[in-house]
Design a protein that fits this description.
Length: about 180
């Protein structure tokens, strides 16, 4: 939770909490110190406002999980689907390259660190002639950067070469997807 909070906001929250505790200790020492009590409450309200956006998800997650459990039968809404490249490969084999690229980009939402998925995306773009060589080079560089292989591109290129093993289909073959 704290990693997603901007540093300046975290510093402001710490300062406000320190001020609230200081004013609360001043208010407890004297009997009728309205200013100290008011400023301590004001600091705490400010902290709640600043952290409210961040804490909202953590505070409401148990209730939403309970509602999901009642209505959908499962509280695990954030499960990542398994990586399955059968559909993009089938689309590429059937020469539906746009569908293969769309399916790869959809899977990229969950599995951006899967080299096989990046290879399938590049091969679908290459086979379909989508974007030309420059688009393929941009996608390859994004893949190398995302996978941390920027200094070892030959390993990724070898994997890309090995995955291009689909049989050559005749041009007149009717696609299963168009029926």
């Amino acid at each position: 939770m704290w990693q997603r909070l901007p540093k300046i906001r975290l510093v402001i929250v710490i300062i406000l909490l320190a001020g609230a505790f200081h004013n609360a200790s001043l208010a407890s020492k004297s009997e009728y110190n309205f200013k100290a009590v008011f400023s301590a409450v004001l600091c705490l309200v400010s902290v709640c406002i600043i952290l409210g956006v961040t804490l909202r998800r953590q505070a409401t997650k148990p209730l939403t999980d309970l509602v999901d459990l009642i209505y959908f039968g499962s509280g695990a809404q954030e499960d990542v689907p398994p990586l399955n490249l059968r559909l993009p490969r089938a689309c590429r084999a059937e020469r539906c390259y746009e569908k293969a690229v769309l399916e790869c980009e959809r899977l990229m939402e969950w599995h951006s660190l899967a080299p096989e998925l990046w290879a399938e995306l590049i091969l679908a773009k290459r086979c379909g002639g989508l974007g030309g060589g420059q688009e393929e080079e941009i996608t390859r560089n994004r893949a190398l950067e995302c996978l941390g292989m920027i200094h070892r591109p030959s390993l990724f290129d070898r994997m890309l070469r090995d995955r291009n093993d689909l049989p050559d289909f005749p041009a007149g073959l009717a696609s299963q997807f168009e029926r």
